[in-house]
Amino acid sequence: MEVRRSARRRRTVTAYQESGRTVVLIPAAFTPAEERRWVAQMVAKLQTREERRRRSLGGDEELMGRARALSAAHLDGVPQPASVRWVGNQQRRWGSCTPADGSIRLSSRLRSMPEYVVDYVLVHELAHLIEPSHDARFWALVARYPRAERARGFLEGVESVRADGAGGDDGDLVD
């Protein structure tokens, strides 16, 4: 937990997650009592938001439904995965796919990321069910997801933070 006071900030309070810790930005003029009250309120708000987001991502069954919907919306319904599941053992990849058996696995680290990023990784893995390599045809399929570039940028940002601080360079973001 880190509280940052700002002389420029007059009334607004903001909180966010940064490198695994909560940062709360408050006006410099706040009293210690106001600081405690606002920090508690903002931490509770972040926790509620995170719990709501986790519920919306759901378990493996919801992930399969999400994959089917993304396949229909962006890949003409062609890729039909046999299984889609969250896994906790992928520390160097965001997702993986085995085209031979139609299985897709997503790193549970994605659960803390925006839904459009999770959807991008799913589309990436679904595209591997059509085109196993990372050739031009594959990237054309992935590009059908409208937020692909934004999601790639988000993941690259996460990776650069990890490379600078806690984890090293992971090379290819999604396989």
What can you tell me about this protein's structure?
The chain is of the alpha/beta class. The protein has 2 domains: 2-56, no CATH class; 58-164, Metalloproteases ("zincins"), catalytic domain (Zincin-like, 2-Layer Sandwich), CATH 3.30.2010. It has 5 helices and 6 strands. It has helices spanning 32-57, 60-74, 115-130, 136-142, 148-164, and strands at residues 2-6, 14-18, 21-27, 83-87, 95-98, 103-107. The strands form 2 sheets. The protein has a 3-stranded mixed β-sheet, covered by helices on one side. A 3-stranded mixed β-sheet has the order 4-6-5. A hairpin with a 2-residue loop joins strand 2 and strand 3. The protein is elongated, with a radius of gyration of 19 Å. Pfam families: YgjP-like (PF01863). InterPro entries: UTP_pyrophosphatase-like, YgjP-like_metallopeptidase. This is YgjP-like metallopeptidase domain-containing protein. Residues 87-148 form the YgjP-like metallopeptidase domain.
